[in-house]
Amino acid sequence: MPLDIMTTRDWKTATSHWSQARSKGHDNLRAIDTALDNYHNVPKHNIEERIRKLNALILVAENYAKNKDTSGKLQFLANRRTQKVDAAEALAKMAEAKVDYFARVLGAERNLPAMFGVGAKTPMQAANTTKDKFLALAKQLKGLQQYIGPFGSGRQLHEDYWTEAIDPLHRNWHHPLNSPVFQKWVELRHEKKSTDLSFYRWFETLSDDELMILTKGNQLLATSYQSEAGREEFRVFVDGNKLKKLTSPDVLSDFNTSGYRTNFAGKGWCIFVMSPEGSLYCNNHDDVSGWFHAAFLGGKPVLAAGELFVKNGVLHAMTPKSGHYKPRQDDLINGLKELRKQGLSLAETQLMSFKLDAHGKGIMTKGAGVLTQWFDAEEYIVSAGARGLLREEGISKEYRFVFSPVTNKPQMVQGDEWLDKNKFKGWVFP
Asked: pLDDT band for position 400 (50/70/90)?
């Protein structure tokens, strides 16, 4: 069963000497056995009752750990008693984590009944009048703001990732690895109408084997949402016209992205977000550990988001590549203005945008990948986007191409040649 605490069998194995038998004098252990059995016997979709049973289990497990005498004349007896106390403490912590998870699930059902509510019909479907539909929608939007922040307070998390912000473990249910699970529930509830359980109650009823079949053996992908304290590890500061990072509690050193990597720009780049208050955070783009743009601010609004290329504290480039926030060019301009306000020099900074066709779709070129436009950041900001074009590039994987006016063909850019804003000035794709 997904995300559950240990089974009674695993608990007995962890607290028995050589078998799962409980001899005379193990009344307190048997009390935990009973509480654990009572929990596992509750129907999986009955979250409220499972919370009650978990709280009862926590009480007896904590009492056992607190009152168990781990001393003994013989060391092996003391070790066995300590082993049992450790197991009881571990069980209590697992139960507490599960209670916290269930509380968040109930919050999602309460805050967003149209998405995760219980019943054959959602409030929107059950509404008979225009007024009732409006009230249901208003409640839904108000509930959503608890997860993605107030509307108008910055660049909002894109709607494709709202389920990630809502999810207690921040699993994006639209991601290809996770979506088969969510889509199966959508099929059963809204198409076949064979269940009226909310998504999370239905999810609890899945066995490990059923979950493995739906995910094809893959682990569910989650984003590592950070707390206010946790994100400080990734803070980058403006100091003396440069970007710097704490390398010890009281030492700021020039920030470099040479050891970072992103999915789009590749090696030597980092992903970043800037908070609405102007704080900058940077890290690797890492699917395995769940490091995506939403991780830094926990899915809340940003002033800007994308990728950075920084060398010896000098900001050389900024891109708008962020699937979670899908920033507009104006968002990046606002971010650059904030950095300049804090004292950062933008003399060497280039700003990238994707070249779009008349329908707003990215333009692809044969052999040179997606087309991008590069601007002198200072000139672009001053002219509100009217001037500053340096060149157009094609990016294919980790290779960069510019159009050569001599050969009339894309020419690969070598190493850091692109850092020289004047080297390829005026070179554009025809």
From this structure: confident
**One domain for residues 244 and 343:** yes
* First-residue to last-residue Cα distance in the chain: 57
Distance between CA atoms of residues 95 and 101, nearest Å: 10
pLDDT of residue 28: 87
Written as six digits, the tokens of 293 are 């743009």
Give the angle subtended at the CA of 206 by the CAs of 203 and 212, to the nearest 5°: 105
Burial class (CB in 10 A: 0-12, 13-18, 19+), 387: exposed
Q: Are residues 97 and 149 in the same domain?
A: no
273 occurs within a structural domain? yes
Phi, psi angle pair for 155, to nearest 5°? -75, 115
- Residues 315 and 426 grouped into a single domain: no
Residues 6+ apart with CB under 8 A from 85: 64, 65, 68, 70
Is the distance from CB of 33 to CB of 8 less than 8 angstroms?
A: yes
Looking at the domain assignment, is residue 1 inside a domain? no
Buried/exposed code over 124-162 (b: 16+ C-beta within 10 A; e: otherwise): beebeeeeeeeebeebbeebbeebbbeeeebbbbbeebb
Q: Is residue 117 part of a domain?
A: no
Opening angle at CA 399, ends 398 and 404, nearest 5? 160
CATH number at residue 90: 1.20.58
**For the segment 187-226, what is each residue's pLDDT rounded down to a tens digit?**
998 899 899 899 999 999 999 899 999 999 888 999 999 9
Number of domains observed in the structure of the chain:
4
pLDDT tens-digit readout, 130-172: 887 778 777 888 889 999 999 888 999 999 999 999 999 999 8
Task: Confirm whether 368 is domain-assigned.
Answer: yes
Note whether 179 and 283 are same-domain residues: no
Q: How far is CA 346 from CA 141, 320, 378, in A?
A: 39, 17, 6
Residues 71 and 153 in one domain: no
Q: Which of 55-69, 91-105, 327-341, 406-420 has the lowest mean pLDDT?
A: 406-420
Predicted TM-score (pTM) of this structure: 0.87
Q: Does residue 384 come out as left (phi exceeding 0), alpha (psi in the -120 to 50 range) or beta?
A: left
| Whole-number Å distance between alpha carbons of 29 and 37 | 12
Question: Structural domain of residue 336, as residue ranges?
Answer: 226-348
Final residue of a structural domain among 215, 246, 277: 215
